[in-house]
């Protein structure tokens, strides 16, 4: 699939900094020369002749065919994401879960085996632990930080490894380069869910991963408006595994949502930088607070995998994890005590959000499984927004007084 009009191609943007690519990469301009990216709300396209139509369907001529698998606005979003990530190609999906499920399911078949780190976003864990096995694709969950456990879990039929880093919600960091080596030695590919790190702070493909997936719902939109996702990889992986699956099953994104996300990308750099700076300051306040029993922030020297953070991330995170005294009651008192931060289950938003994972995103897990992952009843996930950091510090101090 390609366009017929001129565009800033991915390769010609490669030498620019990420901030520049976020504003310009992948733009397709029509003959009108519009400045802002156009929203092509069209299901299909017309052809000048039956011969032209045939040639496009055969892939002999470039051009768009049908918005289930090719649309100019969606293509702009995919190209900008690919340029940002340093990927050859990408496909945008309706949600982050559609991206993850497609990246897992499309290249696999009954008899294949998957190894994944067990600390995962609840729905990702469902896909690996429950959904894939229903179709004969078995899976093994390991402690992501235990490289020997990854090695031991590999089987001759292991085709895909999957991990999230930093993990949701405990912000553990997994060594992507080492897991990629283990996967490749076993002839498997590594898929990384890079949502928590954001494309700004971590580039899994450079570290050796083969596929990167995002929920664009999070930082990429960053303003709580729409859902979306994206799969990024080599041209070969996308053509061989993703394109046909996409064309035939349709986990596609609406051009409208792709357009919102495309405009979101223009400000991703400044938003994530500001949110990370504030998060670092708030983490320092929490670290010495008497009501806080545990603090996890990837930007601090006391993070359990601080050495890996240094090796594979360019900065800390917009996310903080902390545990308060008093278990669930303590956590609920804190949540109800915030004035500015909103109780919700999204993250990466301009608005600061507090989440209680044990009763929301991870309530499906048994208490034992939660304990194993370090998600205690007093654990709070904190997504830092764009408010002034002093107001947020005042807010968190006030909330902790209620604990
Ligand atoms: C939110 C999230 C997803 C799912 O994304 P949706 O857009 O909500 O479908 C997947 N992985 C991680 C790490 C997430 O935070």
From TrEMBL:
Keywords in alphabetical order: Amino-acid biosynthesis, Methionine biosynthesis, Pyridoxal phosphate, Transferase
Lineage: Bacteria, Pseudomonadati, Pseudomonadota, Alphaproteobacteria, Hyphomicrobiales
A GO term, aspect molecular function: transferase activity, transferring alkyl or aryl (other than methyl) groups
Annotated Gene3D superfamilies: Aspartate Aminotransferase, domain 1, Type I PLP-dependent aspartate aminotransferase-like (Major domain)
One GO process term, biological-process aspect: transsulfuration
EC number: 2.5.1.-
Transmembrane residue ranges: none
HAMAP family assigned to the protein according to its UniProt record, in alphabetical order: MetZ
Pathway the protein contributes to: Amino-acid biosynthesis; L-methionine biosynthesis via de novo pathway; L-homocysteine from O-succinyl-L-homoserine: step 1/1
Nucleotidyltransferase recorded as keyword: no
Protein name in the entry: O-succinylhomoserine sulfhydrylase
Organism of provenance: Afipia carboxidovorans (strain ATCC 49405 / DSM 1227 / KCTC 32145 / OM5)
């Amino acid at each position: 699939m390609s366009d017929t009009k001129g565009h800033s191609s991915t390769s010609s943007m490669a030498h620019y900094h990420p901030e520049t690519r976020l504003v310009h990469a992948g733009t397709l301009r029509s003959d009108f020369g519009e400045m802002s990216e156009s929203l092509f709300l069209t299901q299909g396209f017309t052809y000048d002749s039956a011969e032209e139509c045939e040639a496009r369907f055969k892939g002999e001529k470039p051009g768009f065919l049908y918005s289930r698998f090719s649309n100019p606005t969606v293509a702009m979003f995919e190209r900008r994401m690919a340029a940002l990530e340093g990927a050859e190609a990408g496909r945008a999906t309706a949600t982050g879960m559609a991206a993850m499920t497609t990246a897992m399911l499309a290249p696999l078949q009954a008899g294949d085996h998957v190894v994944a780190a067990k600390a995962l976003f609840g729905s990702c864990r469902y896909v690996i632990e429950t959904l894939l096995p229903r179709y004969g694709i078995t899976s093994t969950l390991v402690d992501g930080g235990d490289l020997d456990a990854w090695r031991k879990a590999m089987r001759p039929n292991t085709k895909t490894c999957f991990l999230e880093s930093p993990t949701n919600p405990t912000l553990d960091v997994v060594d992507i380069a080492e897991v990629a080596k283990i996967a490749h030695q076993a002839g498997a590919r590594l898929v990384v869910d890079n949502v928590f790190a954001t494309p700004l702070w971590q580039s899994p493909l450079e570290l050796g991963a083969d596929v990167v997936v995002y929920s664009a719902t999070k930082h990429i939109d960053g303003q709580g408006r729409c859902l979306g996702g994206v799969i990024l990889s080599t041209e070969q992986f996308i053509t061989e595994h993703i394109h046909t699956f996409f064309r035939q099953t349709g986990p596609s994104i609406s051009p409208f949502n792709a357009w919102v996300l495309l405009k979101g990308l223009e400000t991703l750099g400044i938003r994530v930088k500001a949110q990370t700076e504030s998060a670092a300051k708030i983490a320092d306040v929490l670290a010495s607070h008497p009501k806080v029993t545990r603090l996890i922030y990837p930007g601090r020297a006391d993070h359990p995998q601080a050495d890996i953070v240094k090796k594979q991330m360019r900065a800390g995170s917009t996310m903080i994890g902390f545990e308060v005294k008093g278990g669930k009651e303590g956590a609920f008192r804190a949540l109800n005590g915030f004035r500015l931060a909103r109780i919700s289950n999204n993250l990466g938003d301009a608005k600061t959000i507090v989440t209680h994972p044990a009763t929301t995103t991870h309530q499906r897990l048994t208490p034992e499984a939660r304990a194993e992952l370090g998600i205690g009843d007093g654990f709070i996930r904190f997504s830092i927004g764009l408010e002034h950091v002093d107001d947020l510090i005042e807010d968190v101090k006030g909330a902790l007084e209620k604990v």
